Amino acid sequence: MIANDPLAILKYPLSTEKAVRKMEAENVLLFVVDKKATKKQIKWAVEKAFNAKVLSVNTLIDNSGIKKAYIKLSPETLAVDITTQLGLA
């Protein structure tokens, strides 16, 4: 594992227009994550940091080399609540 600290894996949340739309419609969070982090590590970090149940994690590395994680949360955990905790909403 990269570290025992979830914040070493999760760098920062994205609050772009697309990210907000996915958060509201599909209960999905969008985070920039460490490039070496695996999907299992990202899932662990979100569950540990926000006490949330994660259903799935999809990742992509964009053209500038930034790794993004689309984190689908269970229906009982709302993405809007987590972004409110982070001070984004």
Describe the model.
The chain is of the alpha+beta class and 89 residues long. The chain has one domain: Alpha-Beta Plaits, CATH 3.30.70. Helices cover 38% and strands 28% of the residues. The longest helix has 12 residues, at 39-50. 21% of the residues are buried. The model has no long low-confidence stretch (mean pLDDT 92).
Give the gist of this structure.
By secondary structure, the protein is α+β, with helices and mostly antiparallel strands. The chain contains four helices and four strands; from the N terminus they run αβαβαββα.
| Cα shape | globular
Low-pLDDT residue intervals, each spanning 5 or more residues: none
What is the CATH level 1 assignment?
Alpha Beta
Strand content: 25-35%
Task: Name the average pLDDT.
Answer: 92
Number of strand segments: 4
The rounded Rg comes to 12 Å
Helix content: 25-40%
- Classification by helices and strands: alpha+beta
User: Helix and strand string, N-terminal first?
Assistant: HEHEHEEH
In the sheet with the most strands, the strands line up as: 1-2-4-3
CATH second-level architecture:
2-Layer Sandwich
Give the count of structural domains: 1
Largest sheet: 4 strands, antiparallel
The N- to C-terminal Cα distance equals 31 Å
Short descriptors:
Alpha-Beta Plaits; alpha+beta; 4 helices; 28% strand; single chain; 4-stranded antiparallel beta sheet; 89 residues; globular
